[in-house]
Amino acid sequence: MRPVAAMLVPFFLALSLALVASASAAASAAAAAGVPPASAPWVPIADTGNFFYRQVGNFSLLIRALVFREYLDLVEVVSGSVQAAGAGNNYSLLLRAADRNGTVGRYQTVVWGVPGSRDWTWKVISFQRITGN
């Protein structure tokens, strides 16, 4: 009976190590999927008129139109900040956009993506209309 128990100890040790390695891989996969690191600071974007940030803003408006049938045209990217998040970045943008009647409103959006990559799908994390000035 004791020799069997002695043989099971290495088996359970190997199984425990495999579970720990698997949990570590899952945490790495979550980070790569766009979950921002807790310590990553938001960095202000100096040139929000840059074509890239207009593309990010237009992407957010396009997804909004596809999901909610609310069509908005980008007027300008007012301000923004960027945060490292896994394999990519979170982009928090304040947009001015016009509806079909030409009424301009302000909208806050957060988009995650990997610039220049075809392997990662961009995601709209949040989108909301901002009331007031």
From TrEMBL:
PANTHER family for the chain: PHLOEM FILAMENT PROTEIN
Signal peptide: 1-25
Protein name, as recorded: Cystatin domain-containing protein
UniProt key word Signal: yes
Keyword Nuclease: no
Organism of this sequence: Panicum hallii var. hallii
Keywords per UniProt: Signal
Gene Ontology molecular function: cysteine-type endopeptidase inhibitor activity
InterPro entries referenced in this protein's UniProt entry, alphabetically: Cystatin (IPR027214)
